[in-house]
Amino acid sequence: MSAANPNSSFDCAVLIGRFQPFHSGHAGLLQAALSSAAQVVLVLGSAFHARSPKNPFTWQERAAMIAASLPEAQRVRVHYVAVRDYYDDGLWADSVRRKVAEAVPRAARVALVACFKDATSYYLHHFPQWTMLNQEIDSSAPIGATAIRKVLFEAEDVDVSLGALAQLLPRTIAQYLKAWTMLPWYAPLVQEHRAIEAYKTRWRTAPYAPIFSTVDALVQTGGHVLLVKRGGYPGKDLWALPGGFLEPRERLLQGAIRELAEETQLGVLAPTLEEALVGVAVFDHPDRSQRGRTITHAHHFNLQTSQLPEVSAADDAALAQWLPLASLPAMEEQFFEDHFHILNHFLKLTHEQR
User: Fold this and answer.
1) Nudix hydrolase domain spans which residues (predicted)?
2) Which of 246, 236, 346 is nearest to 299 (CA)?
3) pLDDT, tens digit, for every residue of 213-256?
4) Which of 342, 327, 310, 302 is nearest to 222 (CA)?
5) How many Cβ atoms from other residues are within 10 Å of residue 222's Cβ?
6) What is d(CA 50, CA 56) in angstroms, rounded to the nearest whole number?
7) Helix (H) or strand (E) holding 271
8) CATH top class, domain 211-347
9) Three-class DSSP category at 241
10) Which portions of the chain are predicted below pLDDT 70?
11) In a designed cystine with 298, which of 216, 256, 308, 319 is the match (CB 3.0 to 4.6 A)?
């Protein structure tokens, strides 16, 4: 059992991660944090996402599995805070600092337990006011969470696969994962994983990693927005903006209007939509889509009518529906990829804005 160092100069130690799932490498970092300060704040990233092969566990499930791996004396010293993906480094870092301060209000001296595994660890440099405690990667456990998820979703026999991962997972985590695979969302995530892998395979022989260009349409009127439920994987049954891939000889606005018509059968003429265009924004975060690097151009249309035009789902949409603006903040975990954040950009659904 790791006890806080009585000579430590830190009021709290911070450990940031997605922990999808929590594995032995993470457990080593957590023990380093517990040895550095009496209070530890575990920042659970990528919170409030819909379940996906990349984010299969809710932040509450991750907190529960981590707590279960600790003895009681350590469990009471760990605080869990959930932070969403903002796709904006400044907003994200501000949120992390604020939530750490709320968890341990009188912490003047803060340590950041860091492990630089690859280029994705750049976010650790966003906290110069904290003292960085750099930890070496455990070379005896080279497989990380991405590979563990791959084994989990490609398992022909879950017991055999979890047995092969036994040395990479705390015992209680292996038990947790076994029970989790019996729950109703495991099978759909296996299907989604297969769909994403098949998508990537089709492009694997390209001479360069492809960059996809897509368009999305946010239509607002009468206190409502027009959304679709996706009919297939990835993102089956999740809410999304009408949109899709840009065609070879198509302008961006034309593509957005075409996709809108194909998926929703919206009864509004193209010239009317062009006049109703109030904003365009590019969303280009490298990790916004699991299918590969996908840059989307979102178009915001405000029809400014009290009546809701008729819509009907078509193409690859299972449902097209007008939803009240007031209902959107509570639906964050039901959206595909970063579509909630696109809505938030235009409609200011949360208070955390630049």
Assistant:
1) 202-346
2) 346
3) 999 999 999 999 999 999 999 999 999 999 999 999 999 999 99
4) 302
5) 15
6) 8
7) helix 270-276
8) alpha beta
9) coil
10) 1-8, 137-143, 352-354
11) 216
Sole residue written with tokens 């019996």:
182
Best CA proximity match to 286, nearest among 346, 347, 337: 337
Radius of gyration of the chain (CA): 22
Residue 27 near residue 51, CB atoms below 8 Å: no
Residue with tokens 């970092």: 29
Token representation of residue 68: 């279960």
Structure-token pair, residue 253:
């606005």
Domain boundaries, the chain: 10-142, 211-347
- Tell me how far apart the 2 most distant CA atoms of the chain are, in Å: 71
Which amino acid makes up residue 169? L
CATH superfamily of 10-142: HUPs (3.40.50.620)
Closest by alpha carbon to 239, among 230, 231, 226, 248?
A: 230
- Type of residue at 96: V
Specify the length of the chain in residues.
Answer: 354
Phi, psi of 13 (to 5 degrees): -120, 140
Backbone angles phi, psi at 220, to 5 degrees: -125, 140
Instruction: List residues bridging with 322 in a β-sheet.
Output: 226
First-to-last CA distance in the chain? 43
One-letter amino acid identity for 234? P
Long-range contacts: 98-107, Cβ < 8 Å, 24+? 99/41, 99/43, 100/12, 100/14, 100/41, 100/43, 103/12, 103/41, 103/79, 104/11, 104/12, 104/39, 104/41, 104/79, 106/11, 107/11, 107/12, 107/39
- Which three-class secondary structure state does DSSP give residue 292? coil
Rounded Cα–Cα distance for residues 97 and 78 (Å): 16
Could you tell me which residues are beta bridge partners of residue 239? 229, 335
- Write phi, then psi, for 335 (nearest 5 degrees): -100, 150
- Whether the Cβ atoms of residue 4 and residue 60 lie closer than 8 Å to each other: no
- CA separation for the pair 170, 215 (Å, rounded): 43
